[in-house]
Amino acid sequence: MRGMGSIPAGAAARRQVGIDLGGTSIKAGVVTDSGAIVTEDNFDPGFARGPQAVLDTLADIFKRLGGGEQLGIGVPGLLDRARGHLIASPNLPGFVDLGVKHELARRVGLAPERVHVENDANAAAVGELWLGAGRGTRDALLVTLGTGIGGGLILNGELYAGSGMAGEVGHVVVDPHGPPCGCGKRGCVETLASATAARRRALAAQLPPDKPGDLPTLTARARSGSLAELALLREIGRDLGRGLGPVVCLLDLSTFVFGGGFSAALDLLEPGIREGLDERSYSGRGPHVRLLQATLGPSAGWIGAARVALLAHP
Ligand SMILES: [Zn+2]
C-alpha cells in the first residue's frame, strides 16, 4: 500500500465511493483522488432484513451516489482484510462469515480488487490524517472515544493494520481488578474512559445530581469551573493516558487524534491524559505529545474507506 499522499498527479478527477456501515446507520459519499468531496449522505441500513439485503442496500447506495472507480467499505468487526471477508461483528448480529468484497463487487460490477473492506476505526484514522486533524502527520494513532474505544494506527504515512487488529488500544489493560470488559478481561481502558464508562463513573459519583450520568451536562459544569466534575474528568483522562503510555513506549508516537462523541471533552480530559502518559511512558514525555481533536466527525469513516480502496488499488 502506498502513502496517503502519493497518488500520481493528473488523476484528480477519479471518483471513489466510501461507505461507513455503522451499528445504527450508514454514512456514505464520493471523494476524488485529490480530496474533493463530491457528495455525502446518510442511509438506513435496514438491518432487520438480514445481511444479504444489507449488501443489496450497499450496492444500491453505490449506484445512487453515481458510482466510482473504487469502492471502500468500513465495517465494525473482525475482518480477513486480504479476502475482504467479515468474520464476525459484535455490533451487527447475524453478520458472520460474510464475503463482503466479492458479494459487493458482483453487485456493483467492479473488479474485486477495486473493492476494499476495512475495519471502521482504521478507515476513520486514514480519513482524519488525510483530510482532517493532523493532516500531513506521518505517525499517529486515532483513538475513537464512543460506546467503546477504537483505534487506528498510521505509521510512516500508511495505515498499519497488522493482521487486522493493530491500534486496538481500547483493550490495553489499565487496572486488572477493574470493571469487566466485553473482550473477557477486566479494566481495559475502554471500561474506564469510553463514553459509556464516563457515564457509569458519573452515575457512581452521583454527578451531575439532577441529570445523573448526562455527559453534556457533566462537561458543561466542568467548563464552568465545578470542581467535582473537573476532578472526575481528570481521573478518566488519567486512565486514558495510562492506556496510551505503552503506545508511546513502543512506537515513540508524538501525535494522538481523538474522535468519537466523547472527544468533545478532550480539553477537560487533557490534563489527566498527560499525567497518565507521564506515569506509564518515559518520564517527561507527557507534556510533549500532541493531543488533537478530530475534525471530520462522522464523515471520517467513509472518507477513509474510499481512500484506502484507492491506495490498495490505484
Ligand atoms: Zn477489553
Strand order of the largest sheet: 3-2-1-4-7
Average pLDDT, all residues:
93
Q: What is the beta-strand fraction?
A: 15-25%
Low-confidence stretches: none
Gyration radius over CA: 20 Å
Q: What is the global morphology?
A: globular
What is the CATH homologous superfamily assignment of the largest domain?
ATPase, nucleotide binding domain
CATH topology of the largest domain: Nucleotidyltransferase, domain 5
Oligomer: single chain
**SS-derived structural category:** alpha/beta
CATH architecture designation of the largest domain: 2-Layer Sandwich
Ions, cofactors and other ligands present here are:
zinc ion
Tell me the count of domains.
2
- CATH class of the largest domain, please? Alpha Beta
The ordered H/E elements are EEEHEEEHEHEEEHHHHEHEH
Distance between the termini: 9 Å
> How many E strands?
12
Number of helices: 9
Q: Could you describe the largest sheet, including whether it forms a barrel?
A: 5 strands, mixed
Helix content: 25-40%
